[in-house]
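EI: anyone free to look at a 513-residue chain?
SC: sure, send it
EI:
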Amino acid sequence: MFKLIYVSSVSACFELENKTPYYSPESYKVFLNGKQVDGEHKENVFSLFNLEPDTEYTVTTTLGDYQLKFSTIPETGVVDVKDLGAKADGVADDTYYVQMAIDKCPKGGRVLLREGTYFIRPVVLKSDITFELKKGAKLLGDTLEEHYPFIKATTDEDGEENINGSWEGEPFDCHQSFLSAYKQNNFAVVGEGVIDGNAQNSTWWAQTKNRKVARPRLVFLNRCKNVAFHGVTCQNSAAWNLHPFFSKDLGFYDLKMINPKVSPNTDGLNPESCDKVEIIGCKFSVGDDCCAIKSGKLYMGMKYKTPASNHTLRNNLFRDGHGAIVLGSEMSGGVKNLTVGQCIFENTDRGLRIKTRRGRGKYGIIDGVLFENIKMRGVLTPLVINMYYFCDPDGHTEAVWSRDPKIPVDDGTPYLGKFTFRDIECTDVEYCAGYFDGLVEQPIKEINIENVSFSYKKDAQAGLPAMLEHVREYCKEGLYVDNVQKLTLKNVTFDGVVGEEIIKKNCGKIIKE
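SC: here you go
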C-alpha cells in the first residue's frame, strides 16, 4: 500500500505504508498508467514528474496489486523563461528573465525552467504560482556579495514592527536570500532541478563571524502560508539552505539538501516559529545541523510568543551534520507537538539534539516530543538534551554554566517537559548513549526510553558529548542523567558499554523495567 502525500499541476509524491525507516524492505518498480516510469526504487517515498495538468493517472508498483488513482491540479498558463530571452548558459545574467517570468505568471500558472544553467542574482517568488525546475535545470547563484542587496532587519508597517531579516533568532540586517518570499501564499517549487547557491566559489564561507550584515539563506520564506517544495536539490548555500520564518502549512517532500561537511552554518532546513510543517522523504548531508527547529531568542519569544508547533518529520535520511534533528538553541517561543518517525541518522555528531540555556525565557517551553522507529548508525552521541549550551557572547560566563542551587526560576528560565524515545536502534556509538543535563533550578520533567538499543564502536574515540562548560570526554559510556525529575527505561540495552549503564546525578525517580 502507498498513499499520495503531495500533488501539483506537474508532479506528485507518494509514501509507502510500512514501518521500516526510510528504505523499503524490498526494492520495487513504479508504473504510471501501466507504463514503467524509471528504474528500481529503494526509498519509502517516491515521486513522479513531467505530468500533465488537470489529468487523471493510475499508479501501481511491483509491491502488490494495489493501485491508486489521482488527478493533477489545473493551471491557467505557462511562462517559459527561455522564451522570454534567458540564455541558460551559466554565464549570461538571467536574473531579469527569471524575475520577469515570475512577475508575469498568471494566478494559478507555472513558471517553467527547462534544461540549462540560469546564472542569477536573488529573485523573489509570489503567490499562486508553481515554479518548476525541470531535470537538468539549475539556478546558479552569483558569487559577488555586493549583488545580494541589503535588507534592513525591521521596518514599521502601520505602527507595527515588521521583521524583514533575522539571524540566529534575532532581528538582524541581512543580505537578500537567493530565493525569497514575503507574505506570499499558495505557491510551490517543484521538479528534479537544482537550486545552487554557488557559495564554494564565493567569499561567503571565508568570513562567518562578526558580520554586520548576515549571510543570505538559499531560500527564505517570511510569513508565508500553504507552500510546498517538492523534488528539488538545494546545495552550496551561503548559510542555511531553507529557512521558513513565522510561516504556516508548509510541506517539504523528497528534497535533497547537500553541502560540504566543512561548510560553516549550512544547516539543511530550519523552520522558525512555524506551524504545521511536514518534512517527508528528504535527504540531508550538510555542514551543520541537518534540521533545526527554532522559535527565536528572548526578544522574539517574549514579544511574539510564537512556538514551533505541529511538525511531522518522517522517512528522512540525515547524514554528516552536527546534529540530525535539533531543537534550539533559539527556542524562546517554545516547541510543541513534534513527531519524528521512520528516519535514519548516519554519521552525525548527535542524533536528537536539544540545546537551550538560561536566558531563553519563560515561553521557551519544549514539550510533547516523540521520536520513534529510528535507526542511528555511527552517531557519536545519539541523545542529547543540554540546558547549559554555551552560545551567544556571554555563553562561557558563570551565569550560563553555574550549578548554584540557589539560582531562582525567573522570566528568563526555559522549561523542558516530556520526551519519549522508543523503538530506536543505535549502532557504532562512540562517546555515550545519551547526555541529559537539566538546569539545577528547572530540571527536565520527564524522559521515557522504550525498546532502545545502544551498541558501541569497537575502536571508539573519546570526545565531548555536548557543548557546555566543564564537561569531560566520554568513551563507550552509558546514559548521563543530571537534574531530570523522572526517567523511565523499558527494554533498554547496552552492548559494549564501559562502566555504568546509567550515570546519575541529582535525579528524581528512575524506573527500570
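EI: The first helix runs from residue 95 to 104.
SC: 👍
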